[in-house]
Amino acid sequence: MSNQKINKEQLIGFQENIFPGEYNIRWFRVLRLFLESPMVLPAIEDEDKVLVEVCQKVAGSEIYKFCCIAIIKSEGSEEDIRQISSGISEKQFNEFIQEKGSLLGDLSRIKDVFKDEISVINWKINSGVPDKKLTRLAQKYNFKSFIIIPLRENFKLLGLIAIYSEEPELFHDIEIKLFQNIAGNLTYAISSLRTKRNLKKIREDLQESRQMLQLVMDTIPVRLFWKDKKFRYLGCNKAFATDAGLNSPEEIIGKNDFELSWKETAPLYRSDDQEIIAKNISKINYEEPQVRENGKQLWLRTTKIPLINENGEVIGLFGSYEDITEKKNAEEALWESERRYKMATTAGSVGVWDWDMKTGEIFIDPILKALLGYDDYEIENNIESWIKHVHPDDLTLVRQRVEDYIKGRTNHLEVSYRMLHREGRIKWFQVSGTFLTDKEGEPYRMIGTTSDISRHKELENEQENMRAQLLQAQKMEAIGTLAGGMAHDFNNLLTSIKGYTDLSLMNIRDLDMLERNMKQIQKSVQRAGNLTNQLLLFSRKQMMSPSSININEIIRNMLMMLERVIGEDIEIKTDLNNKLWKIWADEGNIEQVIMNLAVNARDAMPKGGLITLNTHNIILTESDVRNIPKSRPGKFVIFRFSDTGEGMSEEIVNHIFEPFFTTKEVGKGTGLGLSVIYGIISQHEGWINVDSKLKEGTTFTIYFPATFKEAGEATAEKLSLQDFQGNGEVILLVEDDSEIRDFIVQALNNNGYRVYAVSNYSEALRVYDQQKEDIRLVFSDVVLPDRNGLELIEELLRKDPHLSVILSSGYTGEKSNWERI
């Protein structure tokens, strides 16, 4: 039977030749069914609805009683069948599909029945019906004829359509061809719907796959992107889009790096892209910067590879990067930490060490080796190489301390010891360490730090020297105070003796034996007064008359006298700076300093020698004073006095400025010569240093503050005793020493004055208040038992600003305060 398609004209021809007039009504119904079915099917988008529509059209044509369509729903599963019917009841239809062995009840037979490409089964034509059970059912329900047409697509069986009629010999050839066309249209509709459904499924699967791929790309922290040959972005993941300042990956398409948030570093990226595409090379895991529009700077680890099509042509590139800013910052922080550690350890002269006690190997910080003047490779990393540099005298101590710690006799390793620098200098180190123990409790490793404490040791020595100097200064101050007090009391005695001696001499005739005795007493008093002055100079309480002087002039003026004092066997050599600064000093005191030094040098050179006098200027800075004992910053004049005598030991040098200390034989020195020098220099706000060694001579270096002011001209008015004769004027005398007070009263009375004599502050105020109308002058000692003489004069001047006063004392540290009176 032919599968040829028929058209409308053919149908009309068939109608005229085959069907007589009485069949026209039926034929037009058939024709209408043929014409309407293809027009309805394309508009239906559901496969089941297509099947239902065809069944209903056939069964509702008033020609055919029953129509059934069976469709294999999925390839490879013939039991998964969809069956649609129209024209009979559901009960009747269930009998058809439940009848085993029939084509509708067991569709597994379809392939066997239609394996020879049978296009139709027509019960009327074929007496040998292949499906007897369908025939039996048809007879049961009075169906006289039926046809079964397979539904094929490209020789692939999709199912069948069965049409039953109550009329015998109904299905003519043209009618069968009609239903074959309907079957073809139905097959096409089903195939189209299934194709659409498959395409939709494919699209959905593709979309799902794309979404999954995008989800994966958006989930990973690595930034992904791909570009075309013109460096325009074709896509990226969400992390990349966020970095680029976009809301979604789709916005990246068509853009380039110069349009994104990293315009500043876009030229760098473009350069890389050009090289990759032009040379067809990959760049893997390289670091590059990224600067955002907000100024934030990042570090990226980037990979870029060319994209190549099936023809081997480069069509673009694919890239990825990860943000390594935190890692980079951590690396830089670690590097900075290590740098600061090195700076700190270098600045603090501290290094670490790690000693493997079983192998003897030791890691020694290169800083420690450098502190000893060695490069890292010059000292091997083993304990013996390090110990070789320990000072021999400290080696036993170091070993003992380590042993004590290891054996538990101490809780921590702590030891200070000396090491030898490669230049021969000694360096002090402080070691702290702790050991690690194994499972058996045995120490196997020791770690610790070593610090260079050389400067600390130097400071300790300096502090010790300063402490000794302070104690010496305090001792000298105490002795000076004692000497000053003794000189004051002794001076009062001398004043009394001298005063009464002078009064007695005024009443004794010349050449009288008593007069000679009295003059001898007067000379002894004068000598005792000189001794008192020396004590006051030592104690720095001697009254001075300073002026701006040049030491060179004093030295030159004293040279002739010094030569007579020291003798002919001692040579004097001078080296005086012609532009020497001046000092503010008492000329007599400076002369006494030079004379005492000369006498001291003469005694140190009994067989003759050389004295050298040197002067020069110096400016001391903060760094200079660290190396000069007792010094301070400023401008100074140096006077250096050197001799080639016997010299002194360090022990003697430490005591030479103490009063009454002398190396001379008993009776050949008071021991005040250098003490007086010390007192004079201190009173002039200077200091003296001594450098002396046995058999190598001695050098005294004296520092005086320089001055750049000139003293005003002073005139001394000569007065005679006649100028002091009184005429009954009243004087208030305030003196606590009774002998001095009695002497002054007698002397003033003998010269025509009237005297009110009191011994303290309180009595003076009382007498003044009672006799202030008569008192013309107040003559007071500075040191009084109850108050200070300066305070007394201040109080009296408040009472009478025009009152005349005289202050006097043989011992005072208050002279600098007299200017306030």
Our count of helices gives 22
Global Rg: 66 Å
Structural class: alpha+beta
pLDDT averaged over residues: 77
List the helices and strands and how they pair.
Layout: H1 8-18, H2 24-40, H3 47-59, E1 66-74, E2 77-86, H4 90-98, H5 110-113, E3 121-122, H6 132-140, E4 145-153, E5 156-165, H7 173-219, E6 223-228, E7 233-236, H8 238-243, H9 266-279, E8 283-291, E9 297-308, E10 314-323, H10 325-347, E11 350-356, E12 362-364, H11 366-371, H12 383-387, H13 392-406, E13 413-420, E14 426-437, E15 443-452, H14 454-505, H15 513-538, E16 547-549, H16 551-566, E17 570-576, E18 582-585, H17 587-604, E19 609-620, E20 634-643, H18 650-653, H19 673-683, E21 687-692, E22 698-707, E23 730-734, H20 738-750, E24 754-758, H21 761-771, E25 775-781, H22 789-799, E26 804-808
Parallel strand pairs: 17-19, 23-24, 23-25, 25-26
Antiparallel strand pairs: 1-2, 1-5, 3-4, 4-5, 6-7, 6-10, 8-9, 9-10, 11-12, 11-15, 13-14, 14-15, 16-18, 18-22, 19-20, 20-22, 21-22
